[in-house]
Amino acid sequence: MADTTSSTQEVPDPALFVPPSPLPHPRIVIEFCDRCRWLHRATWVSTELLLTFPPPALTAVSVVPLNSDDTAGRFRVWLEVGDGPPILVWDRKVNAGFPELKVLKQRIRDHIQPDRSLGHSDSKS
Description:
Strand content: 15-25%
Number of strands: 4
Distance between the termini: 56 Å
Largest sheet: 4 strands, mixed
Shape: globular
Strand order of the largest sheet: 2-1-3-4
Structural class: alpha+beta
Order of helices and strands: EHEEEH
Low-confidence stretches: none
């Protein structure tokens, strides 16, 4: 049954919305090869990072699909922490594979929250 009660709250005018610009820091950018079908891996990594580092530790995660010959096989994780250049946290080709989340989280933590414990992710393998 539909709700027929009228609401006294006005609907906001989208023309008045202001997008976040520039995006706040710190933030993560995950570049991945779309032709390699790595969207699920990229979104899984982004979800894990946001769950481990909720705002304000991380303020945004961008997932960027790439589809050209020069980006074939790419899976990179960048960290932007301020006005300086982005920090390459992981590159699939340089680091010989996909990141183990434990290692990726430790590397990001070391930049944004160096005194924070990651619990079981900090234990020795």
